[in-house]
Design a protein that fits this description.
This protein is α/β, with parallel strands linked by helices. Helices cover 34% and strands 23% of the residues. The radius of gyration is 21 Å and the shape is globular. The structure holds nicotinamide-adenine-dinucleotide (NAD).
Length: 372
């Protein structure tokens, strides 16, 4: 007689009840994960164990009428990881993204996650992952703010007012204790205005929509960038104040002199080394065009910046093995392109809470496997 395998199904409502929106707790859990990353107690996909995930992208045109076509932020992505420490769990986040979803009343991306027993591979949970992913994404800038922002930062600038931009601010505002104002720029002014209204009511601070990217960036002590790929975010380095922290959660370009004088800290330099080697395998004209932080990859390739093997990751700053902020004047760019270890770690935390609270639906894979 084989073994019965059951797993927990958690829909979006269940995830909320089990605390997926608990930003303050997620920031602490992510700080713990950063330490595991620095020690190397994790595995991600690919030969180098540091891959962000494997993407399914589509051609610009196709002879097959049903085949999806290329478009901004249009992809499917599978993001597997093993996370060690007290987590000791495997999992995969899987999503489809299409900007056109907005016109259908859907979010840009639709996400689910599976957690698995790291030993047997049996599923532990199948969960709705939209909130999980936004919160885990937003909390990384929260940890970045905790360790890299200048104490006394008073103004936060948000470039883009989508769900990810809002989640980033929700974490930053908790960590920047002197924050008095948020300035928001979005190419859709009405989205920036709505976010400003929401932020003023929710956090009790001054909040306004800016008329231009320059106005917004010049105001910020902390600048959070989380725009989608519909319009390029191109900044002038002079707009960034002395002592500022800019966080790339979405794609962003700043002129080269900025990177020559500022300090760059990565979410995980090893993952970016893997991205970098993918770019090197592309034809010259296609390299370093798309992705978060590609401009720095190009500068590394052109030997204007030191190689990624010498780069500092936030986990190293937290564990004291790498140098973080050294003065109130220093400008820092924190680049975070997201990793499945966040999804697996935060997902596991919410799953454990759901079990403790008796939330969710238990589903059966089998009473006993047909073949074992
Ligand atoms: N680093 C990570 O871990 C991570 C994880 C998830 C998503 N992301 C990135 O975050 C981005 C935003 O995600 P979302 O779900 O909020 O998307 P969304 O499409 O729901 O919202 C994006 C917002 O960006 C605005 N925008 C686009 N270009 C802009 C520009 N040049 N200037 C100002 N505003 C601009 C849009 O008007 C929109 O309001 C995605 O494109 C994705 O690349 C990063």
């Amino acid at each position: 007689m084989g073994k019965c395998t059951e797993f927990l199904y958690l829909n979006e409502e269940d995830m909320i009840k089990a605390g997926v929106l608990d930003t303050a707790h997620c920031i602490d859990v992510e700080e713990e994960i950063f330490k595991l990353l620095s020690k190397g107690d994790y595995v991600m996909g690919g030969d180098g164990h540091n891959s962000h995930g494997i993407a399914l992208t589509f051609p610009k045109e196709s002879e097959f009428p049903n085949m999806p076509l290329d478009g901004p932020d249009r992809r499917f992505l599978a993001m597997p990881a093993y996370l060690g420490g007290r987590f000791n769990v495997c999992g995969v986040k899987w999503y489809g993204s299409n900007i056109a979803n907005h016109s259908k009343g859907l979010p840009r991306s639709v996400l689910v996650e599976v957690l698995n027993d790291a030993d047997t591979g049996e599923p532990l949970a199948f969960m709705s992952a939209n909130l999980l992913s936004s919160v885990r994404t937003g909390c990384v800038p929260g940890v970045g703010t905790r360790h890299l922002a200048r104490k006394g930062a008073e103004v936060c600038t948000c470039i883009a007012a989508g769900p990810v931009g809002k989640a980033c601010f929700d974490a930053i505002v908790r960590e920047a204790s002197a924050l008095k104002e948020v300035v928001i720029y979005d190419i859709k002014k009405e989205a920036a205005e709505a976010f400003a209204k929401e932020a003023a009511a929710k956090y009790g601070i001054k909040a306004r929509a800016a008329d231009s990217m320059e106005e917004a960036v010049r105001a910020g002590d902390i600048v959070s960038v989380a725009a989608s790929a519909v319009a390029k975010v191109q900044l002038d380095g002079e707009w960034l104040k002395p002592g500022s922290l800019i966080i790339f959660t979405g794609r962003c370009w700043i002129d080269e002199p900025y990177f020559l004088s500022a300090k760059t800290i990565w979410d995980n330099a090893k993952m970016h080394e893997e991205y970098y080697s993918h770019h090197l395998a592309l034809p010259e004209e296609e390299r370093f065009l798309n992705g978060i932080g590609v401009q720095t990859y190009r500068m590394i390739y052109e030997k204007k910046l030191p190689p990624l093997s010498e780069a500092v990751s936030l986990g190293d700053v937290i564990t004291g093995t790498g140098e973080g902020r050294t003065s109130d004047e220093e400008r820092i760019c924190f680049i975070t392109s997201g990793m499945p270890v966040w999804d697996v770690g935060w997902g596991f935390e919410v799953y454990q809470k759901a079990k403790e609270m008796g939330i969710g639906q238990t589903l059966k894979l089998w009473d006993s496997p047909y073949w074992s």
